[in-house]
Amino acid sequence: MDGKIPLIIKWSGKEYEIYISEEDSVADLKREILYKTAVRPERQKLLNLKLKGKVTDEECKISTLKLKPNFKIMMMGSLEQDIVEANTAPTNMPEVVNDFDIEDEEVAIENQEVYLAKVARRVKEYEINILNGLRPGKKCLVLDIDYTLFDHRTTAQSGSELMRPYLHEFLTSAYEDYDIVIWSATNMKWIIEKMKLLGVDKHPNYKIAFYLDSLAMISVHTPKYGVIDVKPLGVIWGKFEQFSPKNTIMFDDIRRNFIMNPKNGLRIKPFREAHLNRFKDNELLRLSKYLKDLAEHCADFTKINHRHWEKYKPKKRRHSKDNRENKDRDRADRTEC
Hints:
Blueprint (H helix, E strand, L loop, with lengths): L3 E8 L2 E8 L4 H12 L7 E2 L24 E6 L3 H7 L16 H8 L2 H13 L13 E5 L23 H9 L2 E6 L4 H11 L9 E5 L5 E5 L3 E5 L3 H6 L8 E5 L12 E3 L6 H4 L5 H15 L25 H14 L1
Helix pairs in contact: 5-9
Subcellular location: Nucleus
Cofactor: Mg(2+)
Keywords: Hydrolase, Magnesium, Metal-binding, Nucleus, Protein phosphatase
């Protein structure tokens, strides 16, 4: 179109092409998005569109943003009917578990040569951008994003409304004992934008070591469920010798993601419907204590059944007049967790 530049809006798994004049405003852009997607302007959050200074959408001209043709804008936002449905509590519904029952599959998958070869290939070819240096002696905490730290489906005016309660307190506490890794089954651009949205990327009280995206995952075949994509922790262990099964734990709301490393995965309760649950969800607060107990009392994380993390009670060290006997007992406690 004459005098207009094409832009791509990425929303809800689809791409929409929009033509806009450089003399138009961001408000005009949002109105064009409305015509294409039916998402109202006040519901639209354009994640990677950086406005200059404190200007309104009406005041900000497209020309000031210096967007190149076919620039992709990532959008969050919900349709009005979806918002109504989200705010309506369902009745007579059974409990829904967003996961596969993969317990019988784990042993068959974990050590198969074909999958170990895929992991080795990721170790060799996948490039990791270290955001903050790894610290000697720290353990490794691997975190999913969607439904683990963030409700990515519910609509909101700000990222803080979709953030899981106690997120920053949880990460601050974990950072004392763990190098923190974010691993999401999406592309790197989305990970970066979501971490910015949540204020995780530059928080003063903790640092993220690095991000892993979908390209670090591998596909495996299960007899019952066919081909699924999973997050093999062996990619991290192959890249960084200070991390191993003994000192690594992964939180994910979907158990199948750690089918390659079942002894190192903890299925966290999914955080959904943030508008209903953000004042009562305390999962991260309780998991902070669990991580602290593991770091202080357990020398081998694979010795613990993380499915029963809520019942975990670390062995208390006994005191004795005989120092040597006391040290031996401490060592035994750490070995057995």
